[in-house]
Every structure is written in structure tokens, then in C-alpha cells.
Give the backbone structure.
Amino acid sequence: MKFNRLYIIDPNPCTKQILEIANYLYDKYKLDLSELNKDVYYWNEVKQLILEQGQTKILSPIYIEEAILRDNIPKNQVLATLQSMLNACNPNTKLHIIDSYLYPKNHDPDYINYFINIFENAIIMCSNVNICTKTDRNIKLEQSIQNEIRKKIHKY
């Protein structure tokens, strides 16, 4: 039997209700209702993942964070998403930012403020911040951001 769906009944029904549901599903649709301990289910999923991708890839300490957001999403939602992703990485001594679009030639007037808002807490926590981006970038924007970061750091 291959599990490809997991159904949850909330709140948890009592035993009598489960039996009634099971009987109804069988009588009406000839479907069997099975119970499986969630730990067993998740362990089977983990084993399958290890078989498909290998333990090194799964247990590797490398974090890759990506998000696909809808068009015209409000900036505050983009900001919250990026901050959440950065917090999930939990940088505390070193931060490595790799982004070829970090210093765009054309940017919104509030780009520097958004940049600072996203990275401020991580920058304050980390003693070393490395940014890797393309050589063809907006140098003036980069310098403006660096100046703002220096101001923020000196506050603390």
C-alpha cells in the first residue's frame, strides 16, 4: 500500500465515531479506513526521502532559501517573507549573502530602507558579513547601503 495522501479529522473523533465513519465509508463507497501512527508514517516518509535523495544531501548543513511570490505583492509582505527566511537561517557570527540582483541599476526610492530593514538584525548579530554579487552592479547604491549599515552598527 502506497500512501500519497494524509487525511486529518479535527478534532479527534472518539473510537465510536471512527467505527461509524469506517462503516459508512465501506458501506457507501467500499473504502477501507486505516489508522497509522504518525511517527510510523513520518519515519516511512524519511526513509523514502533518504532513498531518493541520499543522506548526505538531506543532512547537509547548507541552507538554500527561495520563495516564489505573486506579482504586485505589497512590499510589507515581501519584507516579512524575507525577514522570516533570514531568521530561519539564524545567522549569529557570519552572514554570507549571494545575490546577483542585490544592487540593481534601477531601484525604488525606498530600496535602501527595505534592504536595511531586512538585514539589520542579522548584520548587528554578525561580526562578519560577506556579500557576493555581480561585478556589473550599481556601485553608488552599494556604497549608500554600506554607509547606512555603518551608521546602524555604530548605534549599537
Remarks:
- Strands lie at 94-98, 128-132.
- The chain has a mean pLDDT of 80.
- DSSP finds six helices and two strands in the chain.
